[in-house]
Amino acid sequence: xxxxxxxxxVGSGAGGATLAHACAQAGKRVLVLERGARLASVxxxxxxxxxxxxxxxxxxxxxxxxxxxxxxxxxxxxxxSSALFGAALLRPTAADFQPGRSYGHRLPRELWDWPIDAAxxxxxxxxxxxxxxxxxxxxxxxxxxxxxxVDANLAHGLQxxxxxxxxxxxxxxxCPACPGxxxxxxxxxxxxxxxxxxxxxxxxxxxxxxERIVLDGTGRPDGVEAIDRVAGRRAVFRAHRYVLAAGAxxxxxxxxxxxxxxxxxxRNYMMHYSPIVVGIFARRIGGDQAFIKEVGFSDYYLGxxxxxxxxxxxxxxxVPGPLMLxxxxxxxxxxxxLNWLRARLLPLVGIIEDLPDPRNCVSWGADGRPRxxxxxxxxxxxxxxxxxxxxxxxxxxxxxxxxxxxxFASEEHVAHQCGTLRFGTDATHAVLDAxxxxxxxxxxxxxxxxxxxxxxxxxxxxxxxxxxxxxxxxVAKEA
Length: 479
Prior knowledge:
By secondary structure, the chain is of the alpha/beta class. It has a single domain (5-478), classed as 3-Layer(bba) Sandwich (FAD/NAD(P)-binding domain). Helix content is 25%, strand content 18%. The protein contains eleven helices and 19 strands. The protein has helices at 14-25, 48-53, 100-103, 118-131, 144-155, 191-197, 247-258, 322-328, 335-342, 378-397, 461-478; strands at residues 5-10, 30-33, 63-65, 68-70, 161-162, 202-205, 208-215, 221-228, 234-237, 239-244, 276-280, 295-297, 314-316, 345-350, 361-364, 370-373, 402-405, 437-438, 441-446. The strands form four sheets. It has a six-stranded mixed β-sheet with strand order 6-2-1-10-19-18, covered by helices on one side.
């Protein structure tokens, strides 16, 4: 039978699109199959209700989360979550690749070291930053409240830094509503733009949902079966190599439906515990009218003097819109009070590296609906509480009169999902080998966040992109 491409990639997010682009640059014919549409049908890119309440650019599936059906904040358009992300692309530390040093007895011995170290990943991080136009020098001063926060905390002995962002500030209009929204100018780089630059070597088909991998008579993967979500037609596409990049929820679901089993498949789902601390200032600071996601702190990354436990990054967030603020607080708070608060808010978020737990998993329910079971551990929550306290200190030094922190984790937000098809050196303890190839099926690779055995102390996007570039070399050589 004829092949439709040398490489078929399922999913167009950061991992899938990056690998597709790299394989095309190596002279391979690539077919990308994306479940979402090219463009979301949002009346205005800054329409908060359409975007964040009705979730028009987000995945339209209902997933059973801890027993309750929910629509999640996962990208549902070409580019996946990279079309809607906050653009902060950060390198992890060398310690992130040796989690046993930070967590010891809290992790099984086989997870103490990643199968690849920071030095081997370094050239791929550099290439990823070049591809996505990462910059920490936008050519404009920090917002005044951020500058005040930087100065006050430098004086206290901390080392704040400017976030490296995948944003072309020459085109950026510095919208106050950035993360979670489609970019109106294309200044915030996404993997969809990378696919556009790949030219005819990459064929992209949107509104096509891959349901399973087709096996031949010997059990070898020999195609992907997909349905056109508009026309309703089914088709099988064939290639020399298949690459899953449908996310840490989507990729294991495809493999499970395909009958490709492994005891760890779909297990050890991780998503950072992200305590949010909001500083409330006595006077207006204007964060609701400007781009303020600019600053990060890594001073507590590996712990503090009185709390020697790894906690990860602290970074600034945009001020939430009135509808999302109402959703997070109470529908009974009057609108005028919400607007009064928004003009005086400065939020920070922590990135707590939640540890793998096989009870946190993705599966298919008896009713045919995707299921996600996930709870943060007491250890995760304790580290989150301490990092929230330290974040409050950062804000108070900047002049906040009061700091409030969230005491719960949203079950709708699944940013930074990873871990459900982890890689390793031994098929007993990992689904994928060190090249992110399935141990039992050498023509199937995975390049979304599923491959990560631990979740790092920073967002995983840059690591996913860098790893996709690394794996692309192997795929392109074989395809």
